[in-house]
Design a protein that fits this description.
Pfam families: Epimerase. By secondary structure, the chain is an alpha/beta fold. It has two domains: about 70 residues, no CATH class; about 290 residues, NAD(P)-binding Rossmann-like Domain (Rossmann fold, 3-Layer(aba) Sandwich), CATH 3.40.50.720. It contains 16 helices and 16 strands. The strands form four sheets. The chain has a seven-stranded parallel sheet with strand order 6-5-4-7-8-9-14, sandwiched between helices. A hairpin with a 4-residue loop joins strand 1 and strand 2. The two termini are about 45 Å apart.
Length: about 425
């Protein structure tokens, strides 16, 4: 097992599967280390942990892996989820997507619409706000012609007036990919129910999970009672017979208007240090939006299986923060210099200085795998190559960018940049 621990310390991506794990080498992303089987002694019978704190050794004599142990994926079903091998429905649906007009989630609705249309469903995308607003001058909204040319419809308006905006049209499925609180979402839920929608889907957030020393977050883990999404999820469950909730994390994909990989590229192409808070070994999950939209599509096409379930809408691999920097550098074909810092010590707010949470923030899609039979099809190292090509194509590598917060951190670290 010592070989496994050493491999983990140098690899960027961590794959989750049933009782076997495979790993990607950050120094050679095309190389996947062979899967290995973990003995049953590595698993506890209930609420076992995937990842123990790196700074603390394990003392339990019945756990053969140190400092790592894995949760048994079968815990998903034993924790209240039911695996259903229902056949996928061949019926074509009329789907309404209520889509946010800003933030990283907007691209989910865009890809979801395109995938549904490609599968023969009818789709209307209801974007919040005004079609003529400045927000519509950014992707993915500038690419809505891809939806309409495929036979989809696009409308704009206020979700509180949703019935009038869609002209009294009825839909089989409604997805709310906009609201974060009950005041915003309840009018959509109520209208969908009264208009005869058969299924209601909601894009929530994996950010509602309580912090844990035992990543990954899995469906059924405790959530923050103060999170506004929680009340929305509860209301939908009480209102609809057929419903499903999806909790995404960070995502990448063409058309995303919220920086993710771009943050790393901005520094790498300008030969600047990539400043990462903490140790850089924090685990997170970065998914391609194609995988998220495919999970949603499975739920539409297999509503009986999806009904009444919460799904972590994420990929099946974790990546360390240092690993993300290394993979972005390899995608760009450039070297990278990583520097670590403690936000408080240098006097900066980590939320403003870095695009990801300065902690383990990693969820796994166990319910989607076990209940829907869903599988991720994308591969982060290759995805990043595509993202870098687009980054250069739009000229962002030549854009004048200010790095005021970075410069403040570097000054506190006594590091100069040419």
């Amino acid at each position: 097992m010592a070989t496994f621990v050493a491999a983990l310390s140098t690899n960027s991506l961590i794959s989750s599967s049933s009782l076997q794990q495979s790993f990607i080498n950050a120094n050679n992303p095309s190389q996947t280390l062979p899967p290995f089987s973990l003995p049953s002694s590595c698993f506890s019978s209930s609420n076992s942990s995937f990842f123990s704190p790196l700074i603390s050794p394990l003392h339990s004599s019945n756990r053969a892996v140190s400092p790592l142990i894995f949760r048994n994926s079968s815990n998903v079903c034993s924790s209240g989820f039911t695996s259903i091998n229902a056949s996928t429905s061949t019926d074509k649906k009329k789907v309404l997507i209520v889509n946010t007009n800003s933030g990283g989630h907007a691209v989910i609705g865009f890809y979801f619409a395109k995938e549904l249309l490609g599968s023969g469903h009818q789709v209307t995308v209801f974007t919040v706000g005004d079609e003529g607003s400045d927000k519509m001058k950014k992707p993915p909204f500038t690419r809505f012609s891809e939806i309409t040319s495929a036979g989809g419809k696009t409308v704009w308006g206020n979700p509180a007036d949703i019935g009038n905006v869609v002209g009294g049209e009825a839909f089989d499925v409604v997805l709310d990919n906009n609201g974060k609180d009950l005041e915003t979402v309840s009018p959509v839920v109520d209208w969908a129910k009264s208009s005869g929608a058969e299924q209601f889907l909601y894009i929530s957030s994996a950010g509602i999970y309580n912090s844990t020393d035992e990543p990954p977050h899995i469906e059924g883990d405790a959530v923050k009672s103060s999170a506004s999404h929680v009340a929305v999820e509860d209301y939908i469950a009480k209102t609809f017979g057929s419903w499903a909730v999806f909790r995404p994390q960070y995502m990448i994909g063409s058309g995303n208007n919220k920086d993710c990989e771009e943050w790393f590229f901005d520094r790498i192409v300008r030969d600047r240090p990539v400043l990462i808070p903490g140790s850089g070994m924090q685990l997170t999950n970065i998914s391609h939006v194609k995988d998220l939209s495919s999970m949603l599509t499975v739920a539409v096409e297999n509503p009986s299986a999806a009904s009444g379930n919460i799904f972590n809408c994420v990929s099946d691999r974790a990546v360390t923060l240092d690993g993300m920097a290394k993979l972005c550098a390899k995608a760009a074909g450039l070297p990278v210099k990583i520097l670590h810092y403690e936000p408080k010590a240098v006097g900066v707010d980590a939320k403003k200085a870095f695009p990801f949470r300065n902690m383990h923030f990693y969820a796994e899609p166990r319910a989607a795998q076990d209940i829907l039979g869903w599988k991720a099809t994308t591969y982060l190292p290759e995805d990043l190559k595509e993202r870098y090509e687009e980054y250069v194509k739009i000229g962002r590598d030549k854009k004048d960018i200010k790095f005021e917060i970075d410069d403040k951190i570097l000054e506190a670290l006594n590091v100069s940049v040419a």
